[in-house]
Write a structure and sequence with these properties.
The chain contains 5 helices and 2 strands. It is mostly helical. It has a single domain, classed as 2-Layer Sandwich (Nucleotidyltransferase, domain 5). A two-stranded parallel ribbon has the order 1-2. Strand 1, helix 2 and strand 2 form a beta-alpha-beta unit. The longest helix is centred in the C-terminal third of the chain and has 16 residues.
Length: about 130
Amino acid sequence: MRKHLSLYFKLSRENIRTDDVAGFLRELLRAIPGHIIVVWDNSNTHRGKVVRELERKRARLHMEYLPAYAPELNPDEGVWSQLKGQLANGRSDDIDELEDHLLLALGDISTSQPKLRACVHGSQLPLF
């Protein structure tokens, strides 16, 4: 049986802080029933005290951390590659228009199981 893949995202015009990451995880917990596996890179914002505390308190939240400096393992790199392909050679007139284009492209990727699977299969992430 094939598992359903999902891509959840939140755009920010500011640098992401640990509190922002914890807020995003809380949104995921409200939106998704059952167990949630989050695959992270090793950014300090993903490992802050408030994030670790949230994981400790929520048994259905499982966080897997990729090794440092291993973009080849990160399926998110496939998302960025697809975004670049869809948005290449375009020009937005302002940040709002760029955000609109990003949201449309991310929506296209997130609703396509073949595109999401390509991100996972394109990485060197071992199958579980």
